[in-house]
């Protein structure tokens, strides 16, 4: 069965600094027409950054949509036309003050495929050097170091509500256990 849907029309009703929102009309596989609400997002990057002591670097920050502090792996959105790998290295330096020489690409994930086209690309790396953080003017966060074993258990216990963080922690743990990171 062909389950693809055909876009018939598209109308934007919001264009912001980060996201755009549109309402599409789509022809379904059975020929009927349905509305599809879509949030366009430029995509983002995140990394499981390990120290030489097998600690993962996290950032604690306030997330306005949830009105709460979250503990997440360092991450950021792509600027228009920006290479994801270069964005990752930029975000790593800005948010943690660290850099790495080798990175393992862990693939991409769709955080909310029901209504948003955002793609997050994940990496894992070990810290090669440290310097000063270089946060954006509207960015307020603290870096926390958590031993990998403890972070793994925290992910299993659902102490990270952020999906990219859960995935990154679990993959980094598996890579270390397999001797690949």
Topology:
Layout lengths: L5 E10 L4 E8 L5 E8 L3 E7 L4 E9 L4 E5 L2 E3 L6 H13 L1 E2 L3 E7 L10 E7 L2 E2 L10 E7 H9 L6 H15 L4
Parallel strand pairs: 4-10
Antiparallel strand pairs: 1-2, 2-3, 4-7, 5-6, 5-12, 8-11, 9-10
Helix pairs in contact: 2-3
Question: Overview of this structure, please?
Answer:
The chain has helices at residues 84-96, 148-156, 163-177, and strands spanning 6-15, 20-27, 33-40, 44-50, 55-63, 68-72, 75-77, 98-99, 103-109, 120-126, 129-130, 141-147. It has 181 residues and is an alpha+beta fold. A hairpin with a 4-residue loop joins strand 1 (6-15) and strand 2 (20-27). The mean pLDDT is 96.
Quick check: average pLDDT?
96
**Shape call:** globular
Which segments are poorly predicted (pLDDT under 50) over 5 or more consecutive residues? none
Strand arrangement in the largest pleated sheet: 7-4-10-9
Order of helices and strands: EEEEEEEHEEEEEHH
How would you sum up the major sheet? 4 strands, mixed
Number of helical segments?
3
Beginning-to-end CA distance, first to last residue: 42 Å
Please identify the structural class as seen in this structure: alpha+beta
* Strand percentage: 35-45%
């Amino acid at each position: 069965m062909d389950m693809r849907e055909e876009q018939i029309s598209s109308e934007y009703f919001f264009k912001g600094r980060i996201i755009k929102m549109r309402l599409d009309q789509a022809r379904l596989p059975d020929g009927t027409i349905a509305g599809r609400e879509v949030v366009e997002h430029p995509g983002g990057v995140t990394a499981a950054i390990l120290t030489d002591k097998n600690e993962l670097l996290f950032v604690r920050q306030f997330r306005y949509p949830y009105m709460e502090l979250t503990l997440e792996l360092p991450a950021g959105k792509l600027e228009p036309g920006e290479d994801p790998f270069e964005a990752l290295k930029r975000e790593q330096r800005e948010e943690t003050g660290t850099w790495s020489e080798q990175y393992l690409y862990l693939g991409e994930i769709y955080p909310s495929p029901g209504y948003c086209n955002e793609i997050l690309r994940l990496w894992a790396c070990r810290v090669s050097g440290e310097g000063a953080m270089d946060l954006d003017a509207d960015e307020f966060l603290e870096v926390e170091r958590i031993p990998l074993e403890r972070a793994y258990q925290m992910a299993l216990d659902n102490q990270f509500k952020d999906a990219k963080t859960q995935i990154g922690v679990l993959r980094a743990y598996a890579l270390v256990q397999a001797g690949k990171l």
